[in-house]
Design a protein that fits this description.
By secondary structure, the protein is mainly α. It has one domain: Non-ribosomal Peptide Synthetase Peptidyl Carrier Protein, Chain A (Orthogonal Bundle), CATH 1.10.1200. It is built from three helices and no strands. Helix 1 crosses helix 2 and helix 1 crosses helix 3.
Length: 86
C-alpha cells in the first residue's frame, strides 16, 4: 500500500515542480523549493486524497519531508481508523 500512497503524492509534487525527479527518501524541504504555502497545500492534498484529517500534533515537518514519511503518516492514520472502526 505504501507505493499506492506515494504515487499520488509524487504526482502532486511533480505537477508543481516538473523539473525535479524525487526519490522516496529525498527531503523536499532540503531541496529548497518548498515554502510554507506549498507545505499547507501538501497537507490539504494528503487529507483530501486519502480521506484523513492530519491532527495538529502530526503537523510536523518530519512527517512531510519525504515521500516515505508522508506514506508512513497516511498509513498510520488509515490503520488507526480501521482499528477503531473494527
Amino acid at each position: 500500500m505504501s507505493d499506492d500512497i506515494r504515487t499520488p503524492i509524487r504526482a502532486f509534487i511533480s505537477a508543481k515542480f516538473p523539473q525535479i525527479t524525487l526519490a522516496d527518501d529525498e527531503d523536499i524541504f532540503a531541496l529548497g523549493f518548498v515554502n510554507s504555502l506549498f507545505a499547507m497545500e501538501l497537507v490539504m492534498f494528503v487529507e483530501k486524497t486519502f480521506g484523513v484529517r492530519v491532527p495538529n500534533e502530526q503537523l510536523r515537518l518530519d512527517n512531510f519531508r519525504t515521500l516515505d514519511a508522508m506514506a508512513g503518516l497516511v498509513r498510520g492514520m488509515t490503520d488507526s481508523v480501521r482499528l477503531s472502526a473494527g
